[in-house]
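can u do me a favor
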């Protein structure tokens, strides 16, 4: 309770609701599951008769987009999956929960649960995409994985977002269920087994019947009841030939199951108290009390605004690898990076499908009179973000230097929107606990947040455009803005020792960002100060635990106008791209002492430390050294076996195989941490590649190592600036080539900076 809770040992594949504690019906009766046949709703009809609000139309449109991937090609060779059906279920349910399903169950697929052809043909399956296979017949697809997604909260009556969200609650939950279902189905197909996703509008299965059989709901007359969720839910299913151990239906008496134990958290499941705490907060504030964090006028690390150069997308090391700057091996690995592991690979098709609709024309004829109050607009936008599933939202103006100078095609970017709505997605504490940080799930941790971020910001941008304001989502796959300066100005975190990564007071570094830029008038937030500079000055754990010594052990320097612990981003990028015992790396996030759970379900000591850390700054000299030491003594940062849910698989040439190795690191307390012995290469603006030349421009590491010595200290930069002297020559970016872009333009693909934080060496990286 003080240092550990039951939640720390709860197997991840059990989910956040204690379904396993409910009585089951040992003699399942399929007839009990049956009810009125559902009528499939049409999809892919953004302007159809069911359109009720801008948000409804957009959510339906995205669901139609995901429907393209309900079916697809099956890998030609089966993966080396375990014979133990229970072990298979841990991977499948774990993936469902990882993708944020509220509940997951598995049952056999009875013949009676297949909808007749006539019924399914009523649905708009125009979305069935190229490469669609004939579904394996009902007899072959003998198992069903059932997903349940709880409806989100409707904003308060005085919140503008209520009018957008209230008519769209079911549509949004359906869309999210669809997204999860196509990913789970894609994962199974990548493992070589036929699988087909079913959800509202793209459905050949009786979802309600399956929900009862899989133990997710009890039939009560014509309706379904979930024992824990009263506010409504969406259902989706995956039918498959992949054999799995199944759940038993719930006993009829479990229609209500919220006793005292539920409120305290049965078996380490999320407690009713914590759910209640979240439900009581105003919808625009989100789940974490950011309003309690001290606000300041400027970020806590120096930014010399007038001196920060604008930098091109081409300068990010994942982009450089793609274009051949890091050599043949890095290019080859970069091209398969996102497809290297089956859970991540399954997310790529839906992620890419959203890119073409990130921007678009706004409705210039819309009546915008209702949106004259920036404060009310900001509250509404935040409520929308939280309803869609982000964990934090902040708003700022977009400074000039946050716009990339050139896009991925080499063309110059002119700043085009005033405001940034900056959103964070928690990468998931439990999965991080089960992992080493650089093993086979590490890439999927990033991709999940990229997919979710792209979906949320895309839908929000489309909604704002329909309301009459220009807007565009800026995602990991395609962004015209650097995210890190926006995170700082929007008050979502402070710069950390990890380097090009902002750290949040409640979830630490364990997050990815996505941004919506717009001209809708919005009230902005202020930066925050929760004492992180002091903490990171007295802690080196991320640097000690980095597998390739890329994080600075020394002091902060000035890089392209920012005060920063400058990491060796080239080394980090190379390690993540060519990691042979894992699919990426986020070990610095995993081992950071501030990667914690500080909600009501977290350990008492961590909650108390977090509370004091935000309020009693005078205690930091006493508390921080103790916290850093205690974190090691308690073994935080080691892998927690109960939390591991995924099968370790690598995709080679489109087929899943057993990887040659798995990184199984825990802590290395003996590692030398002498800053004098560390060599960090830096590529300031003057060493960045020609921004509009996509042909290979090999890096010059020797010069980059020497360039580190040229960096000013923050005090030197401040003094120089005060004297009115010009910035150092290395702040001047490499100019574009005359005559326009050169070389091929690469297809959009997720990029990853340091710790998955975005294109580094770009002055400041995007934490996306
Ligand atoms: Fe800062 Fe320590 Fe976390 Fe690194 S591990 S980011 S030094 S708190
Ligand atoms: Fe090191 Fe990069 Fe891994 Fe972080 S993500 S631990 S900086 S290699």
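np, heres the sequence
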């Amino acid at each position: 309770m003080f240092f550990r809770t039951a939640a720390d040992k709860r197997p991840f594949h059990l989910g956040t609701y204690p379904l396993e504690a409910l009585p089951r019906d040992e003699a399942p009766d399929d007839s009990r599951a049956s009810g009125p046949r559902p009528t499939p709703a049409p999809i892919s009809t953004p302007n159809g008769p069911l359109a009720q609000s801008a948000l409804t139309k957009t959510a339906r449109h995205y669901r139609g987009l995901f429907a393209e991937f309900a079916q697809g090609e099956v890998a030609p060779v089966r993966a080396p999956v375990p014979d133990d059906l229970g072990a298979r279920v841990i991977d499948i349910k774990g993936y469902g929960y990882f993708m944020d399903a509220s509940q997951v169950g598995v049952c056999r697929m009875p013949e009676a649960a297949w909808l007749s052809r006539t019924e399914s043909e009523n649905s708009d399956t125009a979305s069935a995409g190229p490469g669609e296979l004939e579904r394996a017949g009902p007899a072959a697809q003998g198992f069903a994985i059932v997903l349940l997604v709880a409806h989100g909260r409707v904003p308060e009556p005085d919140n503008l977002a209520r009018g957008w969200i209230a008519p769209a609650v079911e549509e949004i939950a359906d869309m999210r269920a669809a997204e999860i279902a196509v990913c789970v189905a894609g994962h199974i197909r990548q493992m070589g087994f036929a699988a087909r996703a079913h959800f509202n509008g793209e459905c050949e299965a009786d979802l309600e019947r399956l929900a009862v059989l899989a133990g997710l709901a009890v039939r009560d007359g014509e309706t379904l009841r979930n024992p824990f969720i009263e506010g409504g839910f969406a259902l989706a299913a995956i039918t498959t030939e992949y054999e799995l151990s199944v759940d038993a239906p719930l006993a009829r008496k479990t229609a209500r199951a919220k006793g005292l134990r539920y409120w305290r958290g049965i078996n380490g499941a999320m407690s009713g108290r914590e759910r209640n705490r979240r439900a009581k907060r105003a919808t625009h504030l989100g789940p974490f009390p950011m309003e309690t964090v001290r606000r300041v006028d400027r970020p806590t690390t120096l930014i010399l605004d007038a001196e920060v150069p604008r930098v091109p997308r081409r300068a990010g090391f994942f982009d450089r690898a793609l274009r051949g700057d890091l050599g043949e091996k890095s290019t080859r690995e970069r091209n398969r990076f996102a497809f290297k592991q089956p859970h991540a690979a399954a997310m790529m098709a839906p992620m890419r499908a959203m890119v073409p609709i990130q921007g678009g024309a706004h409705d210039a004829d819309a009546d915008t009179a209702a949106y004259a109050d920036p404060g009310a607009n900001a509250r509404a936008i935040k409520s929308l973000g939280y309803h869609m599933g982000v964990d934090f939202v902040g708003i700022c103006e977009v400074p000039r230097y946050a716009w990339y100078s050139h896009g991925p095609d080499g063309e110059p970017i002119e700043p085009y929107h005033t405001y940034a709505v900056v959103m964070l997605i928690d990468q998931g504490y439990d999965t991080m606990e089960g992992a080493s940080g650089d093993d086979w799930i590490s890439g999927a941790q990033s991709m999940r947040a990229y997919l979710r971020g792209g979906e949320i910001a895309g839908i929000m941008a489309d909604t704002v455009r329909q309301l009459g304001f220009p807007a565009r989502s800026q995602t990991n796959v395609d962004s015209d803005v650097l995210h890190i300066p926006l995170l700082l100005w929007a008050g979502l975190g402070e710069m950390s020792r990890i380097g090009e990564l902002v750290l949040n007071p409640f979830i630490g570094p364990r997050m990815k960002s996505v941004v919506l830029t717009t001209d809708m008038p919005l009230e902005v937030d202020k930066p925050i100060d929760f004492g992180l500079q002091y903490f990171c000055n007295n802690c080196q754990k991320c640097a000690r635990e980095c597998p390739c010594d890329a994080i600075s052990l020394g002091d902060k320097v000035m890089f392209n106008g920012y005060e920063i612990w400058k990491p060796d981003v080239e080394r980090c990028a190379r390690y993540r791209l060519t990691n042979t015992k894992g699919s990426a790396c986020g070990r610095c996030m995993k081992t950071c002492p501030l990667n914690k759970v500080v909600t009501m379900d977290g350990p008492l000591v961590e909650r108390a430390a977090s509370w004091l850390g935000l309020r009693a700054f005078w205690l930091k000299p006493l508390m921080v050294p103790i916290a850093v030491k205690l974190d090691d003594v308690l073994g935080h940062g080691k892998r927690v076996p109960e939390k591991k849910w995924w099968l370790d698989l690598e995709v080679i040439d489109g087929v899943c195989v057993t990887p040659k190795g798995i990184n199984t690191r825990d802590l290395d307390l003996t590692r030398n941490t002498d800053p004098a012995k560390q060599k960090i290469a830096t590529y300031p603006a003057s060493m960045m590649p020609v921004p509009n030349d996509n042909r290979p421009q090999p890096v010059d590491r020797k010069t980059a190592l020497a360039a580190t010595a040229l960096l000013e200290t923050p005090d030197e930069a401040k003094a120089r600036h005060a004297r009115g002297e010009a910035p150092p020559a290395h702040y001047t970016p490499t100019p574009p080539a005359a005559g326009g872009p050169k070389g091929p333009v690469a297809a959009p693909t997720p990029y990853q900076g340091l710790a998955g934080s975005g294109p580094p060496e770009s002055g400041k990286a995007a934490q996306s």
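Residues 442-467 form the longest helix (26 residues). hope that helps!!
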